[in-house]
Inverse folding.
């Protein structure tokens, strides 16, 4: 059924687009994607308004953003930080709330048009499900939502009027390559990877690499968690799963290719041998701008024009599955399905957090993910409750491996 889908954008109505300001809920507004989303909202005030800003702990930046954008609502995730935000915004007509239940509730408000999900990790799942159930369009930056619960999210989208538009640069590239094409003509998706900060590091040297080494990403400026995921290439494994669910393409037809310059954001190969690629500078403003423009038109900007002559050499190579074994883990998780990807994600989140505080070494991330996967069973066709239970169990087990290695 998905194979026959023809991906054509709905008719664009420019007049509508210009007269209707879309209310945007930015979940994770103080993170890297959240801040760049607010840049785009500020760039097109006739198209977008920040309606809701949500941050977990960064009170100072959240307060600055709220004073600048004056959204209708602000939510700080951690309840104990609520008085700080409330008092700092008391002179403005902004409703301040706290706690994770408030987030899932606020995204369903009738005024909200689009929800940008830019929280880190599993924490994005509950509010994304609430937004889909309420028929909101989603600009998906929280790839873990599809990694963990792609099967459930796909079912909910089929029953909802909401659309899910990818913010991830590779998936934005797939989307642009697939517009106007029949999915049955696609032979494979070619997912490009920068290779991360350790692409040229010999395998034997990886065990000594600390988080501060991994955080020096060559091309992309990103948050700490995704930068470590890029160093282990877990991020690319996640993106393979994200593409599988977004476009209904089996994991064995998604090929990862290392492209260190990060100019080709991904490609699609068709049954006649043609390959379409989408190119652009490695700057997340571009895919965010594209996602927020959907389903209308591209958002014109004088910025970010690239000159291909600055890039005389674009290179492509096979990924090293031996050096980055989490790639293989991700393909295996995609094949097994059920709650296996949820376990993989939970163990990875715990391991990456431990690596970031120098509690474990680089190779321990893989060890913890694999040990957790072999310890927990698999639930096929999971419900939301199954994901919650599986996530909790996997976290607890992964944590025990860190405490008692
Ligand atoms: Mg990406």
């Amino acid at each position: 059924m998905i194979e026959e889908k023809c991906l054509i954008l709905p008719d664009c109505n420019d007049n509508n687009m210009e007269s209707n300001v879309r209310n945007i809920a930015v979940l994770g507004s103080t993170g890297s994607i959240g801040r760049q989303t607010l840049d785009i909202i500020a760039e097109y005030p006739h198209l977008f308004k920040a309606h809701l800003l949500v941050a977990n702990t960064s009170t100072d930046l959240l307060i600055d953003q709220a004073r600048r954008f004056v959204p209708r609502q602000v939510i700080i995730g951690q309840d104990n930080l609520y008085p700080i935000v409330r008092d700092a915004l008391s002179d403005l007509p902004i409703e301040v709330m706290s706690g994770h239940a408030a987030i899932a509730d606020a995204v369903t408000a009738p005024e909200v048009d689009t929800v940008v999900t830019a929280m880190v990790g599993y924490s994005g799942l509950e509010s994304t499900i609430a937004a889909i159930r309420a028929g909101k369009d989603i600009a998906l930056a929280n790839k873990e939502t599809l990694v963990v619960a792609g099967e459930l999210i796909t079912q909910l989208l089929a029953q909802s009027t909401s659309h899910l538009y990818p913010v991830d640069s590779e998936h934005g590239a797939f989307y642009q390559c697939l517009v106007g094409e029949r999915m049955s003509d696609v032979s494979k998706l070619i997912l490009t990877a920068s290779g991360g900060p350790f692409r040229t590091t010999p395998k034997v040297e990886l065990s000594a690499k600390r988080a501060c080494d991994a955080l020096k990403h060559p091309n992309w400026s990103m948050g700490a968690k995704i930068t470590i995921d890029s160093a282990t290439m877990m991020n690319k494994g996640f993106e393979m799963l994200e593409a599988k669910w977004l476009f209904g393409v089996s994991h064995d037809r998604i090929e990862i290719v290392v492209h260190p310059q990060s100019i080709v954001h991904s490609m699609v190969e068709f049954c006649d041998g043609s390959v379409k690629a989408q190119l652009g500078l490695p700057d997340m403003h571009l895919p965010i701008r594209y996602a927020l423009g959907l389903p209308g038109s591209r958002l014109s900007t004088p910025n970010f024009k690239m000159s291909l002559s600055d890039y005389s050499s674009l290179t492509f190579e096979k990924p090293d599955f031996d050096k980055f074994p989490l790639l293989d883990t991700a393909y295996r998780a995609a094949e097994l399905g059920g709650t296996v990807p949820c376990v993989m994600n939970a163990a990875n989140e715990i391991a990456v957090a431990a690596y970031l505080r120098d509690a474990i070494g680089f190779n321990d991330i893989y060890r913890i993910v694999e040990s957790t996967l072999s310890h927990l069973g698999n639930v096929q066709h999971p419900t939301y409750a199954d994901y919650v239970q599986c996530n909790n169990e996997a976290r607890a087990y992964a944590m025990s491996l860190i405490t008692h290695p």
Notes: The chain has 16 helices and eleven strands. Residues 168-170, 239 surround magnesium ion (CB under 6 Å). The first strand starts at residue 22 and ends at 27.
